[in-house]
Amino acid sequence: MKIKKILILCTGNSCRSQMAHGYLKKFVGTKAEIYSAGVETHGVNPRAIAIMAEDGIDISLHTSNNISEYVSIDFDFVITVCDHAKERCPYFPTTAKQLHYNFPDPARSKGTDEEIYKEFRNTRD
Predict the structure, then answer these.
(1) Which residues contact 7 (CB under 8 A, 6 or more apart)?
(2) Which residues contact 123 (CB under 8 A, 6 or more apart)?
């Protein structure tokens, strides 16, 4: 059986795609290769790391990657997790099935630490 290659794409590869990457890696294990990238790179958000740790998933060693790093990979699935990435997603010479869901961006949250972490939890959950 061929190992599936899955790319999760968002704007900055700092929160939403990193959280999805963590969950997919947990649930599919070695049955798929999971990648995440952004149309830009903003670094992995420390709050995303903390929120995922609350759920027992360590994404602290993830890196923030640009989509251009993966153009040579023949993905089976490309999952966009924000409208901005979907609109700016470059053409891939692939037959990848494309999936999309627009998650709110917790990195744009304002307020107290408690209010901001609540938004990160809402996106994660």
Answers:
(1) 35, 36, 37, 70, 73, 75, 77, 78, 79, 96
(2) 15, 16, 19, 103, 104, 105, 106
Amino acid letter, residue 97: K
User: Active-site residue numbers?
Assistant: 10, 82, 89
* Residue 52 pLDDT > 80: yes
Query: In this structure, what CATH number is given to the domain that contains residue 92?
Result: 3.40.50.2300
Instruction: Find the domain containing 94 and state its range.
Output: 4-124
Q: Domain tally for the chain?
A: 1
Specify whether the CB–CB gap between 50 and 79 falls below 8 A.
no
Tokens encoding 17:
């795609």
Q: Is the pLDDT of residue 12 over 70?
A: yes
